[in-house]
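FAQ
Q: What does a multi-component entry look like?
A: The components come first, one per line:
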Amino acid sequence: MTGSEIATPSLPKIEVCDLRVEFPLRRRSFLDKPAVVHAVDGVSFAIRRNTVFGIVGESGSGKTTTALAIMRLQAATGGRVLLDGADITDLTGDALRAVRRRMQIIFQDPYSSLNPRRRVGAAVREPLDLMGIGTSAEREETVARLFARVGLSPAQRALFPHQFSGGQRQRIGIARALASQPEVVVCDEPVSALDVAVQAQILNLMREIRDDFGLTYVFVSHNLGVVQRVCDEIAVMYLGRIVERADRNALFTRPQHPYTRALLAAVPGRQEAGHRAELPATLAGDPPSPVDLPPGCRFASRCPYAMPRCLSEEPALREGAPQHFVACHLVNP
Amino acid sequence: MQDPVLKVDGLSVTFRSSLAILDDVSLEVRRGQTLGIVGESGCGKSMTALAIMRLMPSAALKVSGGDIRLNGENLLALDEEAMRAIRGSRAAMIFQDPMTSLNPLFTVGNQVGESIRKNRQIDRAEARQITVDLLKAVGLPDPERHLDYYPHQLSGGKRQRVMIAMAIAGNPDVLIADEPTTALDVTVQAQIFQVLRDMQAASGTAIVLITHDMGAISEMADRVAVMYAGRVVEEGPADEILAAPRHPYTRGLVSCIPRVSDEAFDGWPELPVIPGTVPDLDKRGAGCHFAPRCPLADDRCAARRPPVLQDGERRCACWYGMAGGPAA
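Then the predicted structure of the entire assembly, as tokens:
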């Protein structure tokens, strides 16, 4: 536990209020009205310090965009992001750089996130160089220590990315994320590109460094088996909105939103436990376009329980059971 | 019991005639059944599939032993022309990334139609009608409209459906699916599996499903073969092997992949792991290839190749026997 936590035990590490990210689409002709993709459309949550907050959903749900917007790597078009209670939404220049040092990211693909022509030691040292942390000798020493911490040999600093396996490259990505001694680490599908046996090795490493460094994780993933073990709290996103948010055990044992239930039922190999029957045939469709959003609930077109009200009125995310938030007219009439 | 549709017996493939990529691989799959092949990357799953289709990606790869029989006919004895006639008709394959198998310059109707006309003497109008029926069978909504689409206009799930339609156009005896849903979202994956099951129920096609997902195995496969470093280390009925794996590698694979569970969790539990990685081709010793990563391994495991022990429907290649404990 850190000192600041004792001082303000209830202050969340991160607070996100009504976050919006919109991408303008190019118009086909100047007569068209400007079209906008609502990638993240009014998302709110708080992340307690030293916990793991999971964001799950399918491609196009806005989970990665939300995570990038928290880090200010994606400009928000609306809403606020607070780090330790301080609004970081509009920071620029030195103040933004200072915040960036406190938040780092681990990417999905350790193949494309490392420069193939750079020695990996230099890649890990780069954040230290950019932020001017310590002397040159101290930076080298820090990098060597980080290599040892993530299970690589310090001598491997002199090698190039292609000389490493996928799992080793992800270890390098973790070392680089740790270099600036961050408080928050966003993990965007951190093991999805890795071989099955390597995934567990990397997840165990992430678990150790979270405890060692006192990190708060934002964990973006579509792998529900991993999310169930790793995350304390989970938000389920669908087309830019959170449809359900709850404690991990509540979400997995008592999923409320029809989309969450369909998602869990679709996990292969669950049919023996009697879950298969829940997969609604209507989920056969594709989600609607994020450009022309329907007026009511976004999931209504695929929802087996949709009522007339669902087609006209968008459900708000409301607390049914304590700390269990669901956006559904059926669950919270 | 019926004869297997596909029977691979003692197949070995070498790289530059000295390194064994596949080492004495034996597999079979019967009509209407699905055989799952699991293992990490580099264990020979895809190489087995490519060897069966005679689509070896490099001239440096040669079959050095064994045979491959499709309904009793030895595929290794066929010349390239005869093999080409079999591909797409009696044996078909679908890949992880549909974009690499679909031609971006031709429409969906064009490509599926061609795979139909390749095998049957029919005119374009007839082929078009069959194409529509096939696209309907793989669950593509509004198939007439999709005929004129190019691959880039389709979502990943729809592309995979088109590829399955092409693969089943020739009504194959065996369909090899190499990680067909790995790139897809979980709800789309469930739809694709349903398409494969429906197709199999309707036509009796034997399926070989290559995957690293034990959930997919438990949902789709009748039997499963676990491959490690070019060898089959365990094989048998899928439900039995998932419930009670015997080979230490299978046990590692089953436990290291977190599956959605009904139990409650507290904190972040340490996950069971298989330490290390699959050995490179030139670093595979004479004994059991899994020995360097195996919790049970001793000197004998490192020095001598384990025998394949047969027990009813199951077989397992481990010095420590079928029950997982030390052999008597």
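Q: Is there any commentary attached?
A: Sometimes. For this entry: Chain B touches chain A at residues 40-41, 139, 141, 155, 157, 185-191, 193, 212-220, 252-253, 256-262, 264-265, 268-275, 277 (CB under 8 Å).
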